[in-house]
Amino acid sequence: GGLAFFHIRWDPRKAMTSPVCDVLILVEDPGAANNVLGLVEALRIRGRSARLFAVGPAVDYLRAFGEAPETDPGRDADALIDLVDPGLVLVGTSENTDSLCLALVVAARARHRPSAAVVDGPSSAAFRFRGHSSDPLAFAPDWLLVPESFTRDAYKDLGFLETRMITSGHALFDRVRIVGEALAEEGRDAVRHRVLPDAP
Q1: Tell me, what DSSP letter sits at residue 7?
Q2: Segment 133-151 mean pLDDT
Q3: Which of 12, 27, 146, 187 could pair covalently with 92 via S-S, beta carbons 3.0-4.6 A apart?
Q4: Residues 36, 101: Cα–Cα separation, whole Å
Q5: Given a cut of 60, is residue 38 above it in pLDDT?
Q6: How many C-beta atoms surround the C-beta of residue 151 within 10 A?
Q7: β-strand partners of 88
Q8: Cα radius of gyration (the chain)
Q9: What is the pLDDT of residue 171?
Q10: How far is 171 from 178, CA to CA, in rounded Å?
């Protein structure tokens, strides 16, 4: 899964300086938010620290799933990195050409900090890291975490290095599978009676 990235590809203990926080996460779109559900806790269990920031529609979306994102990252990417001092910057993607996520990738690059982005699917691949430029990878991070081969191929076709992409699955799909298994165990008739108790 996506946590393989944190175990194999990146080790904050090998960084040039010791980060205050292992991972800074910022998402603004519900699609990207899907891919960070439970990540802060999963990292904590593995001895890693993370701070989750959200803006825009991602805030209420994350809260609906029981997450507690910080909601005031400011507008200055450099100031946010200075505040959090992360070993890794992990951002979501969207088609917002003025996204703070894009600025964070640039700020991380200037500080020689690794950056990664979670991508929820192949749609609009040419516009997620474009910003106001004509280059579809102008603001691309060092690594991409993609859910499946279709998304991997979309970015490979744009010129992103395949060796810098990790197929990590999709957190929401995993949740759907878990719910599906629980419903199957409960049984169709029992679920029908629970959801629609007065239906004939």
Answers
A1: I
A2: 94
A3: 27
A4: 14
A5: yes
A6: 21
A7: 23
A8: 18
A9: 67
A10: 11
